[in-house]
Design a protein that fits this description.
The chain has about 100 residues and is of the alpha+beta class. The chain contains 3 helices and 5 strands; from the N terminus they run E-E-E-E-H-E-H-H. A 5-stranded antiparallel sheet has the order 4-3-2-1-5, covered by helices on one side.
């Protein structure tokens, strides 16, 4: 399984921290919504397409907080607002 993206709500602390992960394995896409940091609780959803997985990510990132991408990559890209990182998909392209 390959992790593609990771977003964080910008809040430190076990009770308030939220993370969203986007992963892929072969032709399946997985979204993990984690509450409470590394030792917290997670909810997983499985999706048949990249577009469907990004729809779930967008839904999760509408919650409170200063959501930012913290995936590997250049520092400027990691700290962009979630709305810039996960724009609505261009329909029919299979890309976010």
């Amino acid at each position: 399984m390959e992790q593609r993206k990771h977003w964080w709500n910008g809040v430190w602390g076990r009770l308030a921290r939220r993370d969203v992960f986007l992963r892929t394995d072969a032709d399946r896409w997985y979204v993990e919504a984690r509450v409470g940091g590394a030792d917290g609780r997670s909810r997983f959803t499985e999706h048949g397409t990249e577009d469907a997985a990004y729809d779930m990510v967008r839904h999760l990132l509408t919650g409170p907080g200063d959501w930012r991408e913290v995936s590997d990559g250049p520092p400027a890209a990691r700290h962009r607002a979630a709305s810039e990182v996960c724009p609505p998909p261009a329909r029919g392209t299979g890309q976010p």
